[in-house]
Design goal:
About 40% of the residues lie in helices and about 15% in strands. The protein is built from nine helices and eleven strands. It has a four-stranded mixed beta sheet with strand order 6-9-8-7, with no helix packed on it. Strands 1-2-3 form a three-stranded antiparallel beta sheet. A two-stranded antiparallel sheet has the order 4-5. Strand 1 and strand 2 form a beta hairpin. Helix 5 (about 180-195) crosses helix 6. GO terms for molecular function: hydrolase activity; nuclease activity.
Length: about 270
């Protein structure tokens, strides 16, 4: 009888443990991005570390607003360095499609690559002006035709396959990058929202929960961008790009590449 009771107790205990594991496992996989530390926390980010919400956003705005600016024509050569294919130094890696293409094929013809504003320049009407229009932290090399299909659409999930888009999707009011670029796009958009707050003659750029934002200084959808930031952490390519922009061109950083968890801390 005692053996029977022990057997039943062990069965209950094992079942209970299995249930507990089942309950706790999803919480681990759904948790926000883990806190990170960088070599810049005690220097570049020292006035931001430990803050959250509007205080963190304000501190980061002050930090990253100290930057050098380049002309729109200079962006061509800069992208040849920032977007260089790590496996072929003669090529650049194209946003959205993931294609590796010769650096020399920059231009406006079919088969060329051009300068994609991930924060569409019409959203806030800043065009190609030195400042938001030339900020390398949101400018990427992209296939001419794929760039044209994206146009000035907001970002959201869903749509039909983009021709030669590497898995990107598009519908009438939004664009979804391929999986490998989702986090990159999110962090570029949210960098712009922190960097440009309306205090330097440019529009106050902010993410929102809408599509069809038109010429308003908004970009959607924030909830989708946050999910993409979680699902696609910073890659080695993205981290190298951030470093090159900091070291060679603008001398400011995208804080969400260094600290992706700050997205959730602010929004």
């Amino acid at each position: 009888m005692l053996a029977t009771h022990l057997h039943r107790w062990k069965s209950v205990a094992l079942t209970t443990a299995a249930v507990l594991v089942g309950l706790t496992a999803p919480a681990l996989t759904a948790s926000p991005a883990a806190a990170t530390t960088t070599a810049y926390d005690s220097t570049y980010y020292k006035n931001a570390v430990g803050k959250t919400g509007t205080s963190l956003k304000s501190a980061l705005h002050t930090i990253i607003s100290s930057q050098s600016k380049i002309s729109y024509s200079a962006v061509w050569d800069a992208l040849k360095v920032t977007d260089q294919d790590p496996n072929n130094t003669s090529n650049v890696l194209l946003l959205y499609s993931g294609v590796s293409r010769s650096k020399s094929l920059n231009g406006g013809d079919v088969g060329d690559w051009n300068r994609e504003h991930t924060w569409a320049k019409s959203h806030g009407d800043f065009g190609e002006v030195t400042g938001p229009g030339t900020d390398l932290h949101h400018l990427r090399a992209a296939d001419v035709q794929v760039n044209s299909i994206r146009g000035n659409l907001d970002f959201d999930n869903g749509g039909s396959a983009v021709t030669n888009g590497g898995g990107s999707l598009v519908d009438s009011d939004s664009f979804q990058p391929r999986d490998a670029d989702k986090g990159d796009v999110a962090r570029m958009i949210l960098y712009m929202a922190v960097r440009y707050e309306g205090d330097d003659g440019f529009a106050d750029l902010e993410p929102n929960e809408k599509v069809n934002n038109g010429s308003n200084p908004y970009m959607g959808k924030l909830s989708i961008l946050k999910a993409w930031n979680e699902a696609d952490p910073p890659s080695a390519f993205e981290e190298r790009r951030n470093q090159v922009i900091y070291d060679t061109y603008q001398h400011n950083r995208n804080p969400f590449i260094d600290h992706p968890e700050w997205v959730e801390a602010i929004w």
